[in-house]
Amino acid sequence: MISVIKKDLIMFFNDKKALALSLLLPIALITLFVFAFGGLNKRSDMPPLKMGLYANDTTEETVKNMITQLYQLNTLEIIRADSATLIQKIKKGNIAGVLILANRDNAHLFIEDALQKNESSIIKSIISPIIFKSSGAKKMRSEINKALEKEFGLDVNDSSFISIQGKIEKNLEAGLNNTNHTILQTQVINTTEGINTQLVHAVAGTVIMCLLFSLTGMAASLLEEKEKGTLRRLMLRPGGINNIFFAKYFASVIIGCFQLIVLFLFANLTFSLPLYNHLLQLSITGIAIALCCASFALFIASFCYTRKQVESVSTLIVLIMSALGGSMMPTFIMPELMQKMSVFTVNYWGVQSFYDIYLREHSWSLYLQKIVVLLTIATILLIISRYWVRKNIFKII
Amino acid sequence: MLAVNNIYKSIGEKSVLNGISLNIEKGKFYSLLGPNGAGKTTTINIVTSLLRPDKGEVHINGINIFDKNQDIKYHIGVVPQEIALYDDLTAWQNLMFWGSSYKLSQAELNKNAQYYLHIFGLEDRKNNKVKTFSGGMKRRLNIACGLLHRPKLVLMDEPTVGIDPQSRNNIYDALEKLKNQEITILYTTHYMQEAERFSDCIGIIDEGKIIAQGSLDELRKASGINDEITIVIKNKPHHIPHYNIAYYTEGNSLHFNTESAKNDLPKIISFCLENNLEIEQIEIKKVNLENIFLKLTGKKLRDK
Questions:
Q1: B210 DSSP 8-state letter
Q2: CA of A257 to nearest chain B CA: how many angstroms apart?
């Protein structure tokens, strides 16, 4: 078995062009995805969203306060101009929305870009508390006054009215400013301590996808050997077909681990992805993913009759699996059905285990559950492919 | 050394082998001749234990190969019909790889590899990748890879197909050397001259049956075909004398059928001189395997 593994490795490393492609292509893809997902920053904070702001009269106290508070938000980049200019900017797609602050009791207006629904929704959620605290509170006072007058028949000039109104306003003010009475409190967990989630996603997702592609090519060499007659000659040597099958498998696993090491080193050197703090977990995950991808590759090859069939079938399946499993885009932005389907892919469990290492603060037992899932997938695929390889590929006539 | 007893094999509905039996003694060269689809490669696949027969047994050195098929592989060398080499490896790397499963020490493997590179004239190219080799060189290396572990029994499946005369002669020289080393060889071929030149025994296989086997002389006797000597004389004689070797006349020619042209030619010349028949031309047609094959099977082989 060792001689077959050695031969496969020599052939892999001898073919300089294929070797370069199997490393350069993933490197190019990782770089592309890191840029695309914004993984270049140290942390994964979003860049500020651009919002246009126009106020007809900035002398009014409430409007002044609102503008000051809006400028204090680091999640927004405020662009001041007249309303016509700002609307033009929306039409050009330069900004997602414009807030037009009204005078006195009139309602403020938010104009949004239909093509940037997500961005404008985020902007609305950011500015809502400020608008509520200033204009909302003012509106509420006015409604309370109306209620006092209408429901309790108090005259606005009455001393008791003035007293009640004063107390309500005082408590309302205190309530709005008192953080101890916050209805929704936020507690942050899974702090990533300077690790960019997009970077982890881009590296993990791409590496697994590329591993699936390259190892399927390795498994397809079994069919190429059959076509050329070397497989028959291998079967004539002492050792039996299990030797050949598992030699191919372990050669693929070794090559997979080699690719993982090179690609993670690249991500470490180029994008500062931490490696050395998580070396043990990364090694375990790397081996589990290599075993899983090699099993998947043999599984695909076992159903095919020619190398070309493997290439076309695997391209289709790996692309679908990568799209579903979160190699190309994070699964949380997918529809629910697709998210449910993603658990049937190697990519999903691989990416999730990398998330566990880098981004989540949970225990070894939860992390190891994902490794067990990966190893179970590897074993099941290996058993099926062993059966089909014997039936399809090792068949003499 | 090799005993194949009454082998039957069907693939799907088609019956491929119908009771093949052959025996090869130690150190003998046995050629299996047959047209395409006759069952030659299936026989080799069964002898190498890649295929199991439906019925019958194969013994190598008295051991049933299906009882101990892994052990027996150490004693068999197979040269497949395809050029089963790795193009991206060098000749040396191929030899090392194919020889690596036979419990040879590295020193022994190196020695054998050097020996066969020398025998097949590939010493100068040992560090070149196989993809740079000509077809003939690949064929020679293909054979060398099957012999590295010095097997007692070598099975060669059409090892000289489609190569240049120079490579073919090199392979013939190597085959002579193997014969001298008392290696038992089962050889399938379409080239009659190869079978005639090397074989101690020839088996003619057709439609899954061995229809005749034996030495070339035995096959000739079995086929009933004789050598033919044609004497062209200057003037047609008025009277044709009687002679104890059968002949017939056709114009100025006398056609003699004889079991051995070599033995009877002097007698025939004497007969002509005694009867004042002035010889102008002598033509000898010796019986060859092709005639025998044609007579026995009614078919021609693919290549001549």
A1: E
A2: 23
A85 touches chain B (CB under 8 A): no
Contact status of A10 with chain B (Cβ, < 8 Å): yes
Q: Which two tokens stand for residue B257?
A: 């059928």
Number of other CB atoms surrounding residue B71 within 10 Å: 12
Interchain proximity B80–A238, CB inside 8 Å: no
Largest CA distance in chain A: 110
Contact criterion met (CB below 8 Å) for B286 and B242: no
Nearest CB to A228 within list B84, B89, B98: B84
Taking CA atoms, what residue in B is nearest to A12? B88
Give the angle subtended at the CA of A165 by the CAs of A162 and A167, to the nearest 5°: 110
CB distance A233–B78 less than 8 Å? Answer: yes
Nearest CB among B45, B85, B102 relative to A238 is that of B102
Tell me how far apart the alpha carbons of residues A300 and A310 are, in angstroms, rounded to a whole number. Answer: 7
For B71, which residue in chain A has the nearest alpha carbon? A238
What is the full per-residue pLDDT of chain A (397 aa) written as tens digits? 788 888 888 888 877 887 888 888 888 888 887 777 665 665 555 678 889 999 887 787 778 888 888 888 888 889 998 888 998 888 888 888 899 887 766 678 888 888 788 788 888 888 888 887 777 777 777 777 787 777 777 777 777 777 877 787 777 777 666 655 555 555 555 555 567 777 888 888 889 998 999 899 888 888 888 888 888 888 888 887 888 899 999 999 999 999 999 999 998 888 888 888 888 889 999 999 999 999 999 999 998 888 888 888 988 998 998 888 888 877 777 778 888 888 888 899 998 888 888 877 667 778 888 899 999 999 999 999 999 988 887 776 6
Q: CA–CA distance from A313 to each of A89, A317, A321, A379, A393 (Å)? A: 47, 6, 12, 21, 17
Q: Which of chain A's residues have a Cβ under 8 Å away from the Cβ of B78?
A: 233, 236
E strand spans, chain A: 49-55, 76-80, 97-101, 109-112
Q: Which of A3, A10, A14 sits opposite B100 (nearest CB)?
A: A3
The set of residues, in sequence order, having a beta carbon less than 8 Å from that of A151 and lying 6+ positions away, is none
Cβ within 8 Å, pair A396-B100: no
Q: Which chain A residues are closer than 8 Å to B101 by Cβ?
A: 3, 237-239
At which residue do the structure tokens 């497949």 appear? B80
Nearest to A230 among B42, B73, B86 (CB): B86
Which residue does chain B place closest to A240, by CA atoms?
Answer: B70
Strand order in the sheet with A97-101: A76-80, A49-55, A97-101, A109-112
The reply to whether the predicted model has a pTM over 0.80 is no
Hey, are the CB atoms on B70 and A240 less than 8 Å from each other? yes
The answer to whether A265 and A184 have CB atoms below 8 angstroms apart is: no
| A257 vs A285: CA distance, rounded Å | 10
Largest CA distance in chain B: 79
Distance from C-alpha of B94 to C-alpha of B84, rounded to nearest angstrom: 10
Please tell me the distance from the alpha carbon of residue A88 to that of residue A111, in angstroms, as a whole number: 11
Amino acid identity, position A260: L
d(CA A153, CA A253): 84
Q: Please, which residues have CB within 8 angstroms of residue B283's CB and are 6 or more apart in sequence?
A: B229, B230, B232
